[in-house]
Amino acid sequence: MPRFKDQAICIRHIDWSESSQIVSLLTAAHGKIRGVAKGAKRMSPGCIARFSGGIDLLTGGQIVATTRPSTELATLTEWDLQQPYPHLHEHLGAQRLAMYGADACNAMLADHDPHPDVHDALSHFVLRLVDPDAHAGALLRFQWSLIDGCGYRPVLDTDVVKDDALPPQAAYTFDPIRGGFTTVDGTGTKGPWGVRRETVELLRAAAAGSATGSARSVQRANRLLCAYMRVLLDRHLPTMDFVLGSRA
Question: What is the gyration radius of the CA atoms in the chain, in angstroms?
C-alpha cells in the first residue's frame, strides 16, 4: 500500500456514515483522488488530532493517505487543515464562484492525473475571492489556467477554419469544436458564437499572465470560457449558472 503526503483542496465530500466521509481532493502532486476518511467526524481527541475536526468542502490542507490497487478509493489517515478560507462563509458571491471552481476541476480532471498547475490555480483563485472587486479577474485567470492545463487552450492567433493568421477586425466567430476563432460566420456546431475583438485581446492577455480589461469585457470572456468548457464536457454543471446566468 503506497503511502504519500501531499497538499490538497477538498472539491467534493459526502457523509459516508455518522463518523466518516468520502471526499474528492485535488492534490498538488497526485492529481484528483477520491478517498475515505474513516473517523473524520468523530470528536475524540485522537480523531481531532488526525483530521483537524473533519474535512470541509473548499478547505485546503495536507493529507496523508494510502492507496490499494484493488480499490479506487484511497484511505485518508491524516488531514492537517491549513487554509479554511473563511471569506467563503462571509460573501455569497465568493462562495458560489469557489463552488464553480471546485465543480469545474472535478469534471475536467481524471483521477490520479497530476496537474500541479491546476491545483495552484484553484488555490490562488479561492484566495483572490477575498476581494469582491477582484472576482471577475480572478475567475478569468482560473478558467484560462484550467482549460490550458487540461490541453484545450483556445487558438488565439490563427483562423481555425482558413488556417491563416487571424486578421484584426471588429468581431469574430468562436468555434468550440475546433477550439478557436475564425472570420467565417456560422462555423460553430454548438453556436455559432459571435465574439468581439476586445474579448480576443483580453484572452491573449490572460495567456500572457494578465487579465485586465473593462468589467464588461472580462464578463464576456468569462462567459465564453465557461460555455467552452460546457461543450468540452458535453454537459452543463449546475454551478455554471453562477457564471453564465440561470437562462444560459
Answer: 20
The predicted structure's pLDDT at residue 145: 97
pLDDT in tens, 140-163: 999 999 999 999 999 999 999 999
pTM of the model: 0.92
The DSSP secondary structure of the chain, one letter per residue, reads: --EEEEEEEEEEEEE-SSS-EEEEEEESSS-EEEEEETTTT--SHHHHHHHTT---TT-EEEEEEE--TT-SSEEEEEEEEEE--GGGGT-HHHHHHHHHHHHHHHHHSPBT---HHHHHHHHHHHHHTTSGGGHHHHHHHHHHHHHHHTT-PPB-SB-TTT-SB----SEEEEETTTTEEESSTT--TT--EEEEHHHHHHHHHHHTT-----HHHHHHHHHHHHHHHHHHHTS--GGGHHHH-TT-
Q: How far apart are CA 82 and CA 10, in angstroms?
A: 12
Grid cell locating 168: 484584426
- Residue 233 C-alpha cell reads as 464536457
Q: For each of the domains in the chain, give its residue range(s) and CATH number, in order of start.
A: 3-84 (2.40.50.140), 92-244 (1.20.1440.120)
Residue in the structure block whose three cell numbers are 456560422: 186
